[in-house]
Description:
- The protein is an alpha/beta fold.
- Helix content is 35%, strand content 18%.
- Strand 1, helix 2 and strand 2 form a beta-alpha-beta unit.
- The longest helix is centred in the first third of the chain and has 18 residues.
- 22% of the residues are buried.
Amino acid sequence: MGRWLVGTVLLLLLTAGIARSSEPCGPAVPLPAYSHNDYRGDRPCLEALELGYLGLEADVVYKNGAFLLAHSRREARAGFELEATYLLPLLERVRQCSRVTADPRPFLLTIEDK
């Protein structure tokens, strides 16, 4: 079972590299996967969309009047807001492309309250 899982993950990573699209509404091959905790990266949300991910998961803490991306209140920091990191880029994608994904498949945004 362990080898199968490692092989599957490697295949998904290789496919992700090939499928990347630099066009905002680009022809990225949809991946049956979602991105989790990518807010620690340089281009959260946008990179997942370029790779063709069909969803995102955001761990959120409500602190000081804002929804911050973190696993705990202690970890929560300004500059990692849910709205700026995920919601506004997704809204802009819909405005530009009339959809989130490169094809008509649904896109799943999971928000987990920590």
